[in-house]
TrEMBL record:
The lineage of its organism: Bacteria, Bacillati, Actinomycetota, Actinomycetes, Kitasatosporales. InterPro entries: SAM-dependent_MTases_sf. Residues 1-12 have a biased composition (Pro residues). This is Methylase. It comes from the Bacteria. SUPFAM superfamilies: S-adenosyl-L-methionine-dependent methyltransferases. Residues 1-24 are annotated as: Disordered.
Length: 271
């Protein structure tokens, strides 16, 4: 268990360093979803600044995020923020127009007090205790520009399996499950990648456990579609989930990408 955290002294970043593990294309699934689901807000943003919070020992994810956001908003900017000053120094040779790196933590320092349209925090909160998550979410959401989005989640080392929560200034909105479908035996394989707010709630009686149970049942019932492809099996499973009342907020266009997004309220932990 991590050591208890105390407020950072004035001038010091808030939070703790991650292990720093990173790989090229690790966050492609999350980026692809952001570029699609958040595109209208990015196009409307007065200052399309995105923050890659806790990008790790190498700057690949920040570099890639810039390229993917610029397919939506050509003048998008990305700032990679790291609490480890050595990682910031190592990343600075990669700076270019629209891409910079800064030393900081959950306070999200940006020049001139700018507020980002997007904060992406991937594989950052795994080391924290569950009861710390809500405070971090509030702190990060308070830094967002109007209409901004916080995306916080976890993936495996090469980005085949990923689960993330999307939040606005009003709190968590959705949970997205995404996978390279050929790597799955069943949807509940994604349980090990649940974000910190949910991973300890995957037990009987909790909504996320019920959702994954029902997803597995729908996947089993859709087994005949595996002869067509894992994608078709996934799509049929998502259709069955919706038919049984789960509030999926996306549709076949995203399901074909190996994603399913469900309303946060349906999966929120019980008090």
């Amino acid at each position: 268990m991590p050591a208890p955290r105390v407020p950072a002294p004035p001038g010091r970043p808030i939070g703790s360093a991650t292990r720093g593990t990173t790989n090229p294309n690790r966050l492609r699934r999350m980026d692809r979803w952001i570029a699609a689901a958040h595109a209208p807000a990015l196009r409307r943003a007065e200052a399309p600044i995105a923050v890659d919070l806790g990008y790790g020992a190498a700057p690949w994810t920040a570099v890639e995020l810039l390229g993917r956001l610029r397919t939506v908003r050509p003048d998008a900017r990305v700032v990679g923020v790291e609490i480890d000053p050595d990682r910031v120094a190592a990343a600075r040779p990669y700076r270019r127009e629209g891409l910079d790196f800064a030393h900081g933590g959950f306070e999200v320092p940006l020049p001139d007090g700018a507020r980002p349209a997007l904060i992406r925090a991937a594989n950052v909160l795994r080391q924290y205790d569950e009861d710390e998550v809500a405070d971090v979410w509030r702190r990060l959401c308070a830094r967002l520009a109007p209409g901004g989005l916080l995306v916080e989640g976890t993936c495996d080392e090469i980005g085949r399996r990923h689960v993330w929560v999307a939040l606005t200034a009003h709190g968590p909105r959705t949970v997205t499950f995404a996978a390279r479908l050929g790597s799955l035996d069943r949807p509940s394989d994604l349980a090990e990648r649940l974000p910190k707010a949910l991973i300890h709630r995957n037990v009987p009686g909790e909504p996320v456990h019920t959702f994954l149970r029902d997803f597995d049942r729908a996947w089993a019932a859709a087994a005949p579609y595996a002869a067509l492809s894992a994608r078709q099996r996934w799509i049929r499973s998502a259709e069955a989930l919706r038919a049984t009342g789960w509030p999926l907020v996306d549709g076949p266009r995203r399901w074909r990408q190996g994603e399913v997004t469900v309303s946060w309220e349906a999966l929120a932990p019980r008090p």
